[in-house]
Each structure stands twice: as C-alpha cells, then as structure tokens.
Design a protein that fits this description.
The protein is about 20% helix and about 25% strand. The chain has five helices and 15 strands. The strands form five sheets. The chain has a three-stranded mixed β-sheet, covered by helices on one side. Strands 3-4-5 form a three-stranded mixed β-sheet, covered by helices on one side. Strands 6-7-8 form a three-stranded mixed β-sheet, with helices on one face. Strand 9 and strand 10 form a beta hairpin. The radius of gyration is 17 Å and the shape is globular. It starts with a strand and ends with a strand. Bound molecules: citrulline. Citrulline binds next to loops.
Length: about 260
C-alpha cells in the first residue's frame, strides 16, 4: 500500500524543458489543470500529497519521479543523466529524506533517472538508457539487493522510441506487466505474465498501479478495454501536455 506521494506542478518555464516529441509546445495552463486532476486522482487512490511549489529554475522539475528511487526503508537519490536536470535532486532531497529512515545516492560517474526503474513487488527492473548508464544501474542494483530485492537489467539503448524503461513497461500488480511489443520478448520478462500494449498505443504503456487502482492515459481505447477485460479498475487521465514533453503518468509523482 502507498500512503503518500510527492508532487510538484509544472512552472511557467515548463515548455522550455527537454523533449524529443514533435507534438508542439505544451500549454502551461492546460498542463496545470491536468496536473491538478492527476493530484485529485492520487487522493482518490488514498494518498495524501506533499505538494511542492513550482520551480521555474528547472523546467522539467514537475517530473519528480526521476530524482529518487524509493523503497520502504531506503530512499535512493538519483543522479539524472541530463545535465540540465541534475540540480533537481538537491532541490527536492530535503523533502524526500525526511520521510525515510535511511538514504543513499547514486554517485559519479553513475547516472540514473527514476523513470528507468520499474518496481514490481519484490523485484526491480532497471533500465539502461541514454539517461541511466551501466554504472548507475550497477550502483542501484547493489543498493536494492542489499535491501532484499531482486533486480534485472533491461538495456533499452537500441529501442529508439523510448526515453525511459517505464515509457515502455509498467507493473500491473502480482506477476503481471504491461510491455510494448518491441520489448515483450526480452529475457528479463520470462516468467512474468506480459500484457502487450496494442500497436499504435505505446504511449499508454506508462500507467501506474496504486492501491488497487490503475491510472492510465486517456485516449487509448484498445489498451483501456484490454485492462478492463482483465478486471483492472482503471482511472483515465488526460496527459496531452505532459506527453509533449516526453512525460507520462509515473513521472509526475514519487509514491511511497
Ligand atoms: C526529460 O526529458 O527529462 C523530461 N522532459 C521528461 C521526463 C519524463 N520522466 C519520466 O519518464 N520519468
């Protein structure tokens, strides 16, 4: 069960953040409204929120997930792979660490974005990407193993469409994962029940299981009905403005 989440709304500089998408500039007012709806959905899932102020100094700082990997007993501060985002960790660290009995951090030359880390119960999938390097993945694997978790590495550097591992996979609860077709046969997922995200709806792979509910992006009807057929209780949210900045549902909160 999660009880809390840390969130930070997009700031006036949101549209100046990093993106590879060709979907146009986001409308900040609409992003704010979508963020508020996201916060209400988290509250509906039973979470109480730590709402941080918008931070104009870091256009991507609404994507708080990238700054930490959280386990019940240990918060691990990351070292984001994009230089423009590394200061985000210091800006959020004091808020994170006060909720945890112990903290650790990814150290140079390691880089790691929280978006590359997919928790699936007692197992963590660790993505190696343009943002998370092998050294960052190794350091995290060591820390998580010491906490009693199992880990496996998923190298996505050849999957050009993915910024982060969680742009292409999500834990749906139990032994079940949502995975884009391009990654579905990866050895790391053997022994897991893989639900393949319908072709053309790959963005929807980034969904978030919280306390028996599943937050999904609206506008992906085939994936939504697939999930409903599996008996999952979905809650669909508009994410158009965050998608323009390569962000998804998981990126917008740190849940613990
Ligand atoms: C970035 O490129 O870093 C941001 N514009 C998007 C980060 C999305 N975060 C995530 O998937 N965890």
């Amino acid at each position: 069960m999660f009880t809390r989440a840390i969130v930070r709304p997009p700031s006036s500089t949101f549209a100046d953040g990093l993106t590879s998408s060709a979907l146009g500039r986001p409308v900040v007012a609409l992003a704010l409204a979508q963020h508020e709806a996201y916060c209400r959905a988290l509250e509906e899932c039973g979470l109480s929120l730590v709402r941080l102020p918008a931070d104009e100094g870091y256009p991507d700082s609404t994507f708080v997930e990238d700054t930490a990997v959280l386990t019940p007993a240990l918060a691990i501060l990351t070292r984001p792979g994009a230089p423009s985002r590394q200061g985000e960790v210091e800006a959020i660290a004091s808020e994170i660490v006060r909720h945890f009995p112990a903290t650790a951090e990814i150290a140079e030359p390691g880089t790691l974005d929280g978006g590359d880390i997919c928790e699936a119960g007692s197992h963590f999938f660790i993505g190696i990407s343009e943002r998370t390097n092998e050294e960052g993945a190794r350091q995290l694997g060591f820390l998580l193993s010491r906490e009693g978790f199992t880990v496996s590495m998923v190298d996505i550097r050849e999957v050009r469409s993915l910024l982060h591992l969680k742009s292409g996979i999500a834990w749906l609860g139990g032994r079940r994962l949502a995975v884009i077709r391009e990654l579905a046969s990866h050895a790391a997922f053997h022994g897991w029940e893989v639900v393949i995200v319908p072709d053309g709806e790959e963005y929807a792979a980034n969904c978030v299981a919280i306390n028996g509910r599943l937050l999904i992006s609206s506008g992906f009807p085939h994936f939504e009905s697939l999930l409903k057929d599996l008996g999952l209780r979905v809650l669909a949210l508009d994410m158009t403005e965050f998608r323009k900045m390569d962000g998804g549902l998981s990126c917008l909160s740190l849940r613990f």
